[in-house]
Amino acid sequence: MTHGELERLGLPSTVPFSELEMRIMEDIVRRIKVNGFSTASADWQITRLQQLGESEEDIKKWIQEALAVSDAEIERIFSDEVYKQYMGHRRGFTLFGMEQIPFEENVELQSLIDAVQKQTAGTFRDITGSLGFVRQSASGHMTAVGLSQFYRETLDAAMYDIHSGTFDYNRVLTRTINDMTKSGLRWIDYESGYHSRVDVAARRAVMTGFRQVQGKINEQVAGQLGTESYEVTYHVGARPTHQVWQGRVWTMRQLRDICGLGTVTGLNGANCYHDYLPFIPGVSERTYTDEQLEQMMQEENTPKVYNGREYTTYEALQQQRKMETAMRKTRQDIRLMEKGDADGTDIIIKRGRYAGQMQTYREFSETMHLPQQIGRVYQDGLRGRFSLTKTEGKYFEDLQKDAIIIKEIKGIGIKGEVNLHPSVPDLNGLLFDDIHINKERLHNVTEDEARNYINNAVFTTTRWNGKYTDYFSVDGAAYVDNDSNLIRTAFKKEQYDDRIKAAMEVIANARK
C-alpha cells in the first residue's frame, strides 16, 4: 500500500467525529443565540439546568449516531482493505509456484483481524466517553476541560457578558466560536493529562489497528516464502530520522533495531507511512538502488524558498498540514458565525481570509513542487458556500484598504476603536452640554455646529466599550456620551492636536 493510499485509508473514519464536533459547537452557538437575544438575564438562569440537560441528552444521541457510522467504516477497513492487502501478495506466490492460503481460511490472521477490529471499536467508545475542549491561558498554558464543564462555563460566561453589557452579542459570539474552533473537540486522557483532537484520535486508532494487521500479513507471507528479509518502502517527504533506512532491505531484527519497528517513533509507528514487504535475496529486485535513494534524498533536503523562508520537502509537507488545519478552522468559523447570525461584515472578513488562505496554499504547494491535498480540507464534511461572491469580494477589498488606513491612524497615536464610515445617531435625541462646552471649556461652539460635526464626521473613535463615541469632521469634533445621549464636549478644527491633524491628512490622501 502506497503512502497516499495509507493516508487516505483513515480519512473516512474521521468524518463522523468531525460531524459530531460541529453538532456540539453548533448547539453551543444556538443556545447563545437564543438566550443572548432574550431581554432578561433571569431567563437563562431559570432555564439553565433544563437546557444543559437537553444538550447532554442530545450529545448522547449524537455520539451513538457517530459510533454507528464509525463501526460500519471499521468493518469495511478490516474486511475490504485488509483483503486487498492480503491478496496483493498473490503475485509473489505465483512466481514461486506456491499456493497462497485463501483469505477466509487463514485462521491465525482471521483471529487477529477479529481481535483488532473489536479493539478499535472499543477505542472509539473510550474516545467518545472522555470528550472536552482545551482552554489556553494568557501565558499559553493549555488546560483540558470536560464537555459538561465546558458547556456550563462557556454558556454562563457568554450570558453574563451579554446581559451585563460588558460586551455586545457579536463580540461574545465570535470570541466563543474562536475558542471552540481553536481547540476543536478533544479526547482527554485524565490520568496522563494527554489530549488530542477527536478526529485525530479516531484516525490514529484505525491506523494503529490496520498497521498491526498489515505487519502480520507481511511477516506471515515472508515466512511462507522462506525469507527473513524485507524491503522498506520509500515515500517523498519522509521525516529525517526515517530517511536513513527507507527504501533499503533489512532483516526482521534490523527492522526492530535500526528502523524502530514496534516503537512509537519508528517504522509503522505514529504518522509513519512506510511499509515493509517480503524480499527474497537473489530473486527480488529492489525498487531503488542506494545511489538513487541518495540522489532523491539530496533533492528533497535541498531547501526551496517561499516568502523568504527555506523549506526542505519534509518541512514543506508539515507546513502544508498546518495550512490545511487553519483552513478547516476558518470553514468552521464561517459556518458557526452563520448559525449564530453574526455581523455580516465579520462573516465576509472570514470568507476573505479563507480565500487568502486558499491562494497562499496553492502558491506554496506550487513553489514547493508538492501536489495540493485539498481533500484534507474538505474532510470536515461541511457543505455550502465559504467563498466570497463578486459583491462581497469588492466589499472585502474596501475593508482591506480601510484596515491599512486604520493601522496608519493607530500608529499616529489615535486611541480607541476607529471607524472610517461613521453611522449618524438620532441628532434630535442628543442633549447639548452647553455649560461644560462653552462656560467651562470656552470652546465657543453652538449646538448646531456640534450636530454638524457629528453629521459630517470623517471618522469616529469609540472608547470605554462603547460608552463614548468621538466624531471628527473637517470643521471640528464632538464627543458623545452614548449612555446619557449627551454631547459632552465639542471644539473647532483649530484646536485639533497634531495626532488628529495627521489622521485627517491620512484619510484625505487615501480617498483622493
Strand tally is 15
Identify the overall geometry.
elongated
Give the termini separation. Answer: 62 Å
- The count of helical stretches stands at 18
Widest sheet: strand order? 10-12-13-14-15-11
User: What is the alpha-carbon Rg in Å?
Assistant: 31 Å
Q: Which residues sit in consecutive blocks of at least 5 with pLDDT less than 50?
A: none
Pairing-aware structural class of the strands and helices? alpha+beta
* Biggest β-sheet strands, sense, barrel: 6 strands, mixed
What's the quaternary structure here? single chain
Overall pLDDT metric: 92
Helix content bin: 55-70%
- Measured by DSSP, the beta-strand proportion falls in 5-15%
Throw out a few tags for this protein.
four-stranded antiparallel β-sheet; alpha+beta; 15 strands; 12% strand; 512 residues; six-stranded mixed β-sheet; elongated
How would you characterize this protein structure?
It is a single chain. The protein has 512 residues and is of the alpha+beta class. The chain is built from 18 helices and 15 strands. It has helices at 3-9, 11-36, 41-87, 90-95, 107-128, 147-164, 169-183, 198-225, 240-243, 252-257, 290-301, 313-339, 344-367, 375-378, 390-412, 434-440, 447-455, 498-510, and strands at 131-136, 142-146, 186-188, 195-197, 229-232, 249-251, 276-279, 304-306, 309-311, 417-419, 431-432, 459-463, 468-472, 476-481, 486-492. The strands form four sheets. A six-stranded mixed sheet has the order 10-12-13-14-15-11, with helices on both faces. A hairpin with a 6-residue loop joins strand 3 (186-188) and strand 4. Helix 2 (11-36) runs parallel beside helix 12. The longest helix has 47 residues, at 41-87.
